[in-house]
Amino acid sequence: MTTNNKPVRTAIQADHPTMRRPHRPRAFAVLGSAAAALAVWTVTVPLAGAHLTVRMNGATQPVGPGAVVTASLLAGLAGWALLATLERFGHRPRRAWTGIAVLVLALSLAGPLGSGVHSATTMALAGMHLAVGAVLIPALRHSARC
Q: Rounded to an integer, what distance in angstroms lies between the CA atom of residue 140 and that of residue 146?
């Protein structure tokens, strides 16, 4: 006779964030935030016909889809790394991460306000920042271990 020594997980335990691997939902959150920013860019530039240009180091340059996706992915990966660090070393990582993420989103809005050449650019860039935050913050927060 053989016995199975594996612990039995209940439905509640299996659904608890600490009992599952957070990598897949976090990866989808990062990719989803980049897709959201790219969607705002697509509506603004190709569909609405706006020309997004920003001032950087005294020169103006256009904002293309590559820059939008790259910046969104970097922001998402940085948020993921911070969450993983807080989970490992912090107290109440979900609460701490959410507060930091909302603060970083609010501070990031200063970028579009200071670098947009036209009001359409400023609004579109702020919309991209908010779209990334709207996807990334709830999704990563949900994947956090208490």
A: 12
Q: How far apart are CA 128 and CA 72, in angstroms?
A: 9
What pLDDT score does 13 carry? Answer: 47
3-15 burial, b for 16+ CB within 10 Å, e for fewer? eeeeeeeeeeeee
| CA–CA separation, 133 and 138 (whole Å) | 8
Structural domain spans, the chain:
19-52+60-143
Structure tokens at 114: 């200071």
pLDDT at 94: 95
Over residues 50-59, the mean pLDDT reads 86
**Per-residue confidence (pLDDT) for residue 8, from 0 to 100:** 52
